[in-house]
Amino acid sequence: MTTIDLPLYGMAVIIGMLGIPALVFSFLGLPLNRALFTGALRMIVQLTLVGLYLGYIFDLNNIFVNFAWLLVMMAVANTHTIRSAHLNVRHFFAGSFLAILTGTTVILFIFVVTVIRPEPLYDARYLIPVGGMILGNCLRSNILTLERFFSALRKNRKEYQTYLSLGATTFEAALPFARSALSAAVTPTLSTMATMGIVSLPGMMTGQLLGGAVPLIAIKYQVAIMVCILTSSVITATLNILFGIRFGFDGYGNVLERVYQK
Question: By residue range, what is the domain housing residue 35?
């Protein structure tokens, strides 16, 4: 069984449906239409270019090219994460990149080497899509973690200073805010896992079913990837908080103002 191709007129109908949210935004006076159409255009252009490039990568299937592409994906995701959290990219890039690199590559290595075991192990058709799924979900959790953590510290500065004045270390004083940030980051993934299969059919499983996979095989892949996504998200979010505490505070436990985006 082969996946049914989508004709151009069908894609035109799909893209035309963007007019519905555009009308809603206009009716409610929401200034979101520019972001809507800019985002849609960027999505179409970027996915088209990536689709062409991935075809080349899949055919080449070179270990160095495959891992180089993963590093590029991580670097772009890292920059977007820091900016979306309203933090200083130059100050946080190295620490946040190390967190993403660790959380993504460790889980991806375990999944590819011990579970899928393709031939070769660096097969781009598995390495890059699975890495992209893990990285994409880590992106969302990391944005929530960093944004909630540092914005909470700024809004509750007196509470944080009180902890320090009572003799708490920087880590101990920041821990309540770290807990809240991490909880906010992983709760959406936990909720998705709890309702998966009843409320929704997830993307990876749906894609495999459309491609003709046996339902039980598609289910096993989906369970595996969701566990990988959750584990990787927790690792990267936790490391981002630890690195944030390490590099975002001075010797007296005060948050450095330069960590915030100007």
Answer: 1-60
